[in-house]
Design a protein that fits this description.
This protein is α+β, with helices and mostly antiparallel strands. It is built from six helices and 13 strands.
Amino acid sequence: MTGGETQLVLRLNPALDPARFAKAYARDGVVQIPGLFEPDVAEFLARMLEGSMSWDLALSDAEGRHDVLDQATMARLGRETLAARIGAAVGRAREGFAYVYLCYPMIEAYLAGRDPGHPAHVLTEFLNSPEFLDFGRTVIGAKASLTKADAQATFYRPNDFLSLHDDQGVGERRAAYTLGFTRRWRPDWGGQLLFHDGQGEIERGFMPAFNMLTLFKTPRWHSVAPVAAYAGSPRLSVVGWLRDDPPAGKGAA
């Protein structure tokens, strides 16, 4: 994908009625919105995720903090050390919060000027535009205006996972979102976004999907089921939180 392709204007599908989805969100605390973008826009974004991303490795450290290893760091660590770090994260998931998946930290990359001209920056700007934030505010019923959206692109390979957690913040996270660009998926391939009750039982689950926005209230217990070793496609999505704390840094991101 070349930089010239970023001239495609991102916009929400004009056929969407946010008020209709707001009713489901108010009732259930979660809603799925199919067809968020028109087909040409969705195809553009899917091809970006499939073919032009420089993926980092995201995994939780021993304190449960977010650790992102870029490709240079992974090369420097070497295969054995990297495998040991991944193994340690998997071990920590047995008793607590942990995760392993590939990511592109969209906000950090945008602010740092990483990959100039990359179309991911166009999506970062769109997710922080009045059009998207106003749409999100209407759906979730936020009384105050949303100010920004976190964003990271994610690529789940076979055996990647995100264990049980509740997205507890300090009050600024009004809702979590996932924007799926997984073209084909079988239910036995895992990777479902799962919601859990206080005893850990599964209340609801969503299979990876294409051009699908999922919004849910935070805090709420959820996980991403491990992707099966035999899964035949990557689980691709953009995820983050809709927030109402003051924006900072470059532009609206």
